[in-house]
Amino acid sequence: MAFNSFVSESYLKSSTPVLANVDVSEVVPFLEEVELINIREIIGKPLYDEVKANFIAQTLSADEITLVTYIKKALAFRAVGAALPFLMIKITAKGPQTLKGEFSDPTDLTSMKYIRTEIDKYSEYHEERLVEYLCKNSSKFPLYATSDDESGIISTTESRYDSDIFLGDYSLRLNRYLYGPNQNQ
């Protein structure tokens, strides 16, 4: 079954630094991974599942359409960043190969790392805007503040620095980023 991403190939070309001559089909495989690894973690599995189902069915509410615009920006930049090393280096039967064009020279590893760092800055910026939008509009997205499983563990940005243990005070969740490791796949 084909994966339906929030982001199309034309959106990748029009909204990211990917040039028109890049074969976007080389970036598309990263959309699914980034969507599941980053976007689902940011908005939480319950909200992700609901918005994704409505997106596929083309039944998004006005609020969900706005949410998807935030998702698309974050997803597009994160996918380009994930694909970048593989655009430069191809894994072949002979091992990793750096491709050289007739009228171009490949960039060195240092330059590629710099470009990836810059793309990651855009990704992080758009992810933060997504979280801010969800926090400011939490009443419109009640699934955003829903636990992913029966364990009572609710991830917040604090968990990146402290722990993933939720101690039971739901009032502490207000105005916090609610993303981190989801327990359910």
Approximately how much beta-strand content do the residues carry? under 5%
Number of domains: 1
Distance, first to last CA: 17 Å
Q: Kindly name the structural category.
A: mainly alpha
- On the 0 to 100 scale, the average pLDDT is 76
Number of helices in the DSSP assignment: 5
Largest sheet: 2 strands, antiparallel
Number of strands: 2
Helix content: 40-55%
Low-confidence stretches: 150-163, 166-185
Q: H/E element string?
A: HHHHEEH
- Quaternary structure state of the chains depicted: single chain
What general outline do the C-alpha atoms trace?
elongated
Gyration radius, in Å: 18 Å
Strand order of the largest sheet: 1-2
Give structural notes.
The protein has one domain (9-147). Strands 1-2 form a two-stranded antiparallel ribbon. It is elongated, with a radius of gyration of 18 Å. Helices cover 49% and strands 4% of the residues. It has helices at 9-15, 28-43, 45-57, 62-88, 109-136, and strands at 89-92, 95-98. A hairpin with a 2-residue loop joins strand 1 and strand 2 (95-98). Mean pLDDT is 76; it is low at 150-163 and 166-185. The protein contains five helices and two strands. The chain is mainly α and 185 residues long.
